[in-house]
Amino acid sequence: MDGTTDVTRTIAIGTPTSEYKDRFTRVLKGHIRLATCRFPKDTTGIQLDILARHALWQVGLDFDHGVGHGVGCYLSVHEGPQNISKKMSEVALKPGMIISNEPAYYKTGAFGIRIENLVTVTEPQALPGGEQPMMGFETLTLAPIDLKLVEPKLLNGKEITWLNNYHKNVFEKIGGALEDEVRTWLEQATRPI
Predict the structure, then answer these.
(1) Confidence band of 131 (pLDDT split at 50, 70, 90)
(2) Which of 41, 84, 171, 182 has the most CB atoms at less than 10 Å from its CB?
(3) CATH-assigned architecture of domain 18-151
(4) Torsion of CA 28, 29, 30, 36, to 10 degrees
């Protein structure tokens, strides 16, 4: 009765290989790059799509679906007109739109990775030294990202800070509502790297 949501998380079962960790971390880098971008009014999703694919493209990898889709309230989980995709769209992102941030990678016949959060487009704000206000994204989803799959050597300082701050927010917002055993698990799952 609270509306519609969408979240996909890849979690490790067993011990992840170095290939799994590399691919997962490259998907995470794209996720963070999109989550932290600032963009002007009239920006469309096709203009942002490369941000989520860049770390994969640098090593000859990609995925064959859009990076983000609109999410309806009491309607369809996949609802436009907004999206983030390589496919042409003339629909500009506007404040208040909810959209998924879900870069991925799939190795045929072997494994798949997806890290999905829902985000909302923020109101334009002035940036220090900037000449025009920029919109961005506010992350709505509160679910840990599996640290067993993260290769910290592939992340830069800003990406590590984003991941640590995201996990801190997850724990602070939902940890208090959990029973002791589950709260202890969440505290470990959201520890800083």
Answers:
(1) very high
(2) 84
(3) Alpha-Beta Complex (3.90)
(4) 110
